[in-house]
Amino acid sequence: MKKQLLFLTVSAFALFSCSNDEDATTAPIAPVAEGTIIASTGGPNQQNQLYIDLSSDTKTSIQRDTWDLAFSSGNSFRVAINGANKMAVKQLNTTNINEVQSEDASVSVGFSTFASMGYVDNPTGVLEGNGGGFGTAIAEVSSVDADNKVYLVNLGFNVGNTTPNVGAVATDGAARGWKKIRVTRSGSNYVLQYADLNATTHNTITISKNTAYNFSFVNLITGQQVNVEPMKNKWDLNFTTFTNYFPFTGGEITYFFADFITTNFRGGTRVYQVLNSEANYDTFTLASVIESSFNTSATDQRVIGSGWRNGGGPTSGPSIRDDRFYILKDTDGNIYKIKFLALTNDAGVRGFPVFLYELLQ
To answer: What is the C-alpha to C-alpha distance for residues 237 and 265, in angstroms, rounded to an integer?
Structure first.
């Protein structure tokens, strides 16, 4: 019966996918009941961010160095940076975008950059906060123009293009350089000013909020808006590289991860982890779901994070953790169980995770 249901669902989705999400007028489609997904991020360079919608078994891939800034479509005016490329920013004590600026090597991601410096976004994904490692690294854009400062922007690194040893990753390519930016407001729109550090003039882009999406995205090198995420109710998981916080010498540093998974908590996706010592994947049913366990993921996109795999070490290669599985509630309220089967492909190459999922009903 499940095989028949899956065939009918996939067939229906193939017909539906011919039209744009915005134009669709067809009746809702029953969610995919089960499947196995190869969540490819492109290989050991992990060049792509992969968005997955479980109910439609849909994948959306975007090269991670094609965008820099994400402008929130929410009620507040918040701008996030692209942690998938090790971006970092620093507020300057000026509102004049046309002042010449200099690079600052401390504005970076790594062991010497503490979270409290506020150079990167809080990795929970929560945008609100007063800086110093809380909320976005760029302060909330004020309606008072004089309150909006210029920021020094380290654009991080291009996607790597070298081939590492089997089981390793090579995420970093050439440095992408530096920009200076300033963001103000015009009614319900963002106004982005940007320029090279030595420029005495600047370019301007106006970005409108689109509430069908979590964010609108801009590439600072091309000066263009780009499409990145699917509509906010059309994805659940994002496989990506990621700038996280990590405990170190009594504080937290900024630390870069490959093979990271975030959830679409802004769109309503919720998730929690179950250890095999607590329950069995094969016998886990809808009646086994503990609703309160979803609470953490309402304010933290990292519940799966890097915890689904071992990173390896001097005497061992990377591998999945087979002592756990995950329960996910999607943006439509469908509940799935998820089990990871592989971190690499059959040749041991990173960037090809595989997971099994099943609708609980």
So the answer is: 10
Closest Cα to residue 33, out of 58, 52, 59, 10?
A: 10
Confidence of residue 252 (pLDDT cuts 50, 70, 90): very high
**pLDDT of 2 above 70:** no
Of 274, 268, 272, nearest in space to 324 by CA: 274
Look at strands 88-91 and 203-207 and give their pairing: unpaired
Residue 28 scores a pLDDT above 90:
no
In this predicted structure, what is the pLDDT of residue 157?
98
Cα 117 from chain centroid (whole Å)? 22
Cα–Cα distances (Å) from 201 to 91, 190, 265, 357, in that order, read: 19, 19, 39, 52
Q: Which long-range contacts (CB under 8 A, 24 or more apart) does 306-313 make?
A: 306/242, 306/244, 306/257, 306/259, 306/260, 306/261, 307/273, 308/261, 308/340, 309/259, 309/340, 309/343, 309/353, 312/167
Distance CA 247, CA 254 (A): 9
Q: pLDDT tens digits for 57-74?
A: 999 999 999 999 999 999
Contact 166, 318 (CB under 8 A): no
